[in-house]
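Serine acetyltransferase
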Amino acid sequence: MAEIKQKVAAIDPVWSRVCEEAIAAIAAEPLLGGLVHSSLLHHPTMERALAYRFSLKLASGEMSEQILREIADEAYSSDPSLGQAARADVMAVFDRDPACHRFLQPILFFKGYQAVQAYRVGHWLWRQGRQDMAYFVQMRVSEVFGVDIHPAARVGKGIMIDHAHSIVIGETAVVGDNVSMLHSVTLGGTGKEDGDRHPKIGDGVLIGAGAKVLGNIRIGHCSRIAAGSVVLHDVPPKTTVAGVPAKVVGEAGCSQPSMSMDQILKNCDC
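Structure:
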C-alpha cells in the first residue's frame, strides 16, 4: 500500500497532498467526515472529485446532479488541460492567499476557486458548440457563487480570485496565466457595441478590489491595477495604474505583482 501511495504521489503530487490533508481534516473534525469522504477521498482522481463538486454545487430543480456530473466527467476526460489548470489554480491560491493553509481548502470552501473550475467546464461546453448548456452553467455559477464569467471568455491557468464576490468577466475578455484579482472586479464593455469589446489581461497581472477595466484594451503583463480604479486605456507592461480614470502612477514594484500581492502604492505620483 505504501508503494502504491508513493507512485500516486509521484504521478500527481497535488492530488496526493489533497488526500493526505483530507485524512488529517477528518481526524481533527470528525463531523466533517461525510463531506470530506464524499467530496475527496471517495474519488480516485482530482478530476472526478471536481466533477462531483461541480454537480453538487450547481444542481437545481432545473438540472439534476446526475446530468451535471456526466457533463463534467466528459469534459475532464476529453480535455486534460482542465485538470492541469485546476491544479495550477490550487497552487496559485495556496501560494498567494494568506488565508489558505492547505490544498483542500479551495476545493471544499473557496467559492472563487470553485467558480473558476465551473467556468472551465462551461467554456469547454462552449467550444463544443453547446452554447445553451454553457449559458446554463454560467447562470448557475452566478446564482450560486456570485461570479459571472461568460463561457466564451478565455481564462488562463494559475488564477487566484480572492473572496470572489461580484466578479464579472465579459464575453470577449481574455485573462492570461498567473493573474490575481480581488472581489468586485469587472472586465466589461463600455456600452452596447458588439464584437470584440472586452479587456485583454496579460500574464502576471494583479487587479485590486473593485477595479473596473472597460473596453477592448490591453493590460500589459506583470502590471498592477489599484483597488477602485477605472481603467479605460491600454496599460503598459510592468507599471502601476490608479485612479478614476486610471493613469500610470509608477512601476509595478516587483517582477511578479500577481504573486507578491503587494497592493500598497509606494513613491508614486498619485
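DSSP finds ten helices and 15 strands in the chain.
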